[in-house]
Write a structure and sequence with these properties.
The chain is built from 19 helices and no strands. It is an all-alpha fold.
Amino acid sequence: MTIAKKLLSPLTIVYVVFFFFSLHIALPTYINSTFLQTFVSEKYIGLIFTASSLLAIVALIIVPKLLRLVGDYFATALFLVLEIAAFIGIAALKNPAAIIALFLISQALITLISFDLDLVVERYSKHSQTGSIRGLYLTSANVAWVGAPALAGFLLAGGAYWRVYVVSSLVLIPTLLLFTGALNRFKDPLYRTIHFKHAAGLVWRSKNLRSIFLSSALLSVFFMIMVIYTPLYLHEHLGFAWGRLGIMFSFMLLPFLLLEAPLGRIADKMLGEKELLTAGFIIMALTTTAITFVGNASFVVFGLLLFGTRVGATCVEIMTETYFFKKVGSEDAQIISLQRTLRPLMGILGPLVATALLYFIPLRMLFLALGILMLFGVPLALGIKDTR
């Protein structure tokens, strides 16, 4: 009875829900830009992602009012239903304007659902077990992310993008059923208004927090640019088939599954965060820059280079997360909320800058520019004071 109760505990249900939700996000992530490129010129793809990030930020500002009105449970259930409908529409419709509009709405909904699930995890977490609970929560997502590109590549045989969006919408149905069936007793926390200007002032006055925030911002730009433009470059310019790209991207993402936990332990017990954070930015800079110069290299060479970029990104991600949460506590809710907005903020800035650059440089040179940008993370990393 105890084992059964544990297996059916709210947190276990949340882990399963987050796995299916992450699979729903991950399946189309690396094909979104090439799909949109069938409607819009390559140079303007970044503007669509900028608009989606802007809409996501507006949604994050509005959502606390909705949560206070109807509660997290009903709001999340509604968002899930709308997200399923949006993906079915993307798969079924032929009108480019309608498809792009649904894509923008979907990206905002994904941000809102992620925010809501984060609140659910916080509500069911015991303070003494936060690290373990968050670790399992992120691992459930990483498992989905690693397998998704290979599955998407298989589904894309013959260039049938609609299959990916249909399967992705179907994957979200278990998420909806599990959430509505098992988490209907969720008790909402107090939804406070966050004063971002005050939080930004607190961060800017602390050299260590400022450096970590800027490091996280650089990482967010890296993720956004790579997700949009790597598939475009490899598929449209170098001619890699989706079946091979799916395998390559799954291999690329393995460091997040294999290295984050060990690197976190190394930072705690041996090196501290500064050294690994510095190494991560250097690895990202070198491997991303190399993509510009390898030209028509083999499947294996590109696979190893992309794997290297994510080894560096894994170092930066786990070190920024570890350092940040060692420097703030539950009483710093405003700073934590500000940190959560970094990715959508950089989702506006990164693609906008990339769009401007692509008027003057070919796509392959964008990776050189991104590699140079990652070098700015090195002085930021060296400037922090280790927590050890």
